[in-house]
Amino acid sequence: MRKLKLFIPLFLFALCMAFGGRPSDVAAAEREGQYYLGGMTAGFMLNAGGAEVIELNAVKTEEGMQCPAEKAGLRPGDCICAADGIKIGCVGDLNEALTRSGGGEVRLTVRRGAESIEVTLRPVKEKTSGTFKIGVLIRDTVSGMGTVTYIDRETLRFGALGHGLTDENNRTLDIGDPRMFRCSVIGVNKGTRGKAGELRGLFLNDKVIAQSEKVCIAGLYGTFEQNYDFSACKTIDILPISEATIGKAVIYSTVDGTSPQEYEIAIAKVDADNRENKNFVIKITDERLIEETGGIVQGMSGSPIVQNGKLIGAVTHVFVNDPVRGYGIGIEKMICE
Which of 53, 87, 173, 197 is the most exposed place for a label (fewest CB within 10 A)? Predict the structure, then answer.
């Protein structure tokens, strides 16, 4: 068997040279079908950038019900970033800060929209647990859903989304939990002119499919689990932006359940030099998809764009005033990250 493995590359080299080929031609042949085509949805968790207040709750103490947070002026949506100058990165950090206080004054640094404010309060001791609390329900991660674009067959590294991730204040978010879960689409809020739609998904928490590693301007990246079932995945090669053309193409998206479907689109514009993630302007032409979603909706970001059987990019944004149209990023930009 070892001799066979050594012999085949030498044979291919000789064959290529005999017909005027070069070693690089052999390498190109070996790279055919080097990617698994995506189109499946995945759920992920991102850092909220602190301890985000979801709602205010009174604390039951020996003296009755108290809510120091409300008294200090905290509001739902505020994000607690520091306590007495020490960074708060998660719920545990806040709990430790309140314990350290021993019921004394705590100075909180709070992000409220684009502003940073400071509030001072005194935690109270909860009657049943004896722990110090301020009367807030908080979270330190936010969940999201997007579409996987490609998976490298050799390394199992993947790219998804095709764009960076920000919150409602346009603040860049980082990975909160490296695990990515299989996600089932259970409904769609259809897109309409002036309002973007969205996929509604359910995390299948017993189905970890990948480990995420970084988020950047070109998308979400990481590595798929080796035990993931790739048997239903198509294999595909990439096509550089320079060879993409205006005209017919398809996208692969999951808008119901867990299985990607092929939908027809038209490429209206190709801009290889665009420095943002807007190398393509696309239009959904498939009546099935328009009927189901109204066009491009949140959660479809990362849907692979395929032309002439080659992967050329991914869906990234929707035109809010025309949901059947949107932008796409060139696959080269995603793979180079």
Answer: 87
